[in-house]
Amino acid sequence: GGGAGAAGHWEGEPLQLDTHAPQDAAVLDIDPYSIEVLEDLESWHRRLLDGPPVVWIPKYGFWAIGQHDVVSKVFSNWKLFCSSRGVGIEDLTTSTPWRKPSIILEADPPEHTNAKKAMMRAMSKDTVAALEPGFQAYAEELITRLLAADSFDLAHDFAEDFPLKVFPDAIGMPAENRRNMLPYASLAFNAGGPENEIRLNALKQAVPVIPWAEQQTLRESLVGPGLGETLYVCADEGLITHDEARLLVRSLISAGVDTTISGLGATLRFLAENPDQWELLKADPSLARPAFEEAVRKASPVHAFFRTANEDTEIAGTKIREGDKIMCNLAAANRDPRKFENP
Ligand code: OVV
After folding, report:
1. Any alpha helices (H) in the chain, and if so which ranges?
2. CA–CA separation, 16 vs 149, rounded Å?
3. Eight-class DSSP state of 63
4. Which atom of ligand 1 is nearest to the CA of 106?
5. How many CB atoms lie within 10 A of CB 277?
6. Are the C-beta atoms of residues 203 and 215 closer than 8 Å to each other?
7. Cα(206)–Cα(328) distance, rounded to whole angstroms?
8. CB 22 within 8 A of CB 39
9. Which stretch of DSSP H or E encloses residue 315?
10. How far apart are CA 331 and CA 71, in angstroms?
């Protein structure tokens, strides 16, 4: 990967913002990346869902969408609304990203196709089924330990602990320094936002662990069979190159634990806040999966990803110019009453 080699570019150039509102655009004067919005996501999502389907955010000069059908349509059309120009606020064709782009997240067909095939092979149904007993055993061990304690921190001791053990095991990573994945993932996710305090802080926390993360992606750093080695076998067989295998291991390390931590934390928090639902789940443990699904619908671990318009086009009647960035708010779409009864 090029992350370590990109030293000196970490601070980036200042974002080149063209915040000029296009004619006739519905304007929503709000900063979606401000602390106030992050602490009151419901109001922001309601403004996206109750107003026009496509709004211009003048502070940064991008479009925002949140209605479920509109977001789905944009996500389904990679030819018009591409990922390869970046899924954050920056256009990768005109900016210097903090690391080499991901070949699975920030890519479109045809380049994306074999990367996805390799990833699907590494996480095939059989592989996932084979992981289950180990995940189960550690879940039992962890819960037994937590129940024996006087108290424990649900976020740190449960939601973070579990994925930070089982997922690096599944990749085939060594046992040391796994908590380094947290600041690294925090930067991987927050890098898509503007250069505010949150992003600068994520960068500051992650810089010391970036060389570690890059090192972990090497084949010789893996300690056994696992998802990582399977990706390198895909390279041995010619499906992808060995450099690409390395970038896909980097994707696992970047995005393998963060959303699971948020999802587990949200599930247990919602159950704590809704004891009637907890009783229902206890009475019928087969509800565990729908309970988890409902938690990640209500509190999407990923709030938004961007797409970039590849040509002049339109969304829900609004004219979109080539190069325009569109913030696709998954978290709002997941709370859209047009799609979900009593969202
Ligand atoms: C932050 C993030 C999300 C999803 C995938 C990746 C990163 C990646 O590195 O591929």
Report:
1. 35-38, 41-50, 68-75, 111-122, 125-148, 161-171, 181-190, 197-206, 210-216, 227-236, 242-255, 258-273, 275-283, 288-298, 330-333
2. 52
3. E
4. 10
5. 15
6. no
7. 26
8. no
9. strand 313-315
10. 10
The residue whose C-alpha atom lies closest to atom 2 belonging to ligand 1 is 255
Atom of ligand 1 at shortest range from CA of 192: 1
188 Cβ closer than 6 Å to some ligand 1 atom? yes
Taking the C-alpha atoms of residue 103 and residue 230, their distance in angstroms, rounded to an integer, is 17
Atom 10 of ligand 1 has which residue's CA nearest to it? 251
Transcribe 131-166 into DSSP letters. Answer: HHHHHHHHHHHHHHHHHHSS---IIIIIIIHHHHHH
Tens digit of each residue's pLDDT (9 = 90 or more) over 121-179: 999 999 999 999 999 999 999 999 999 999 999 999 999 999 999 999 999 999 999 99
Distances (CA, A) of 62 to 13, 27, 311: 19, 10, 15
Q: pTM of the prediction? A: 0.93
Residues of the chain with pLDDT under 50: 1-11
Is ligand 1 within 6 A of the CB of residue 83?
no
Give the amino acid at 144.
T
Whole-angstrom Cα Rg for the chain? 21
Please name the residue that has the structure tokens 């570019």. Answer: 9
| Residue 226, C-beta contacts closer than 8 angstroms, at least 6 positions apart | 169, 170, 171, 172, 173
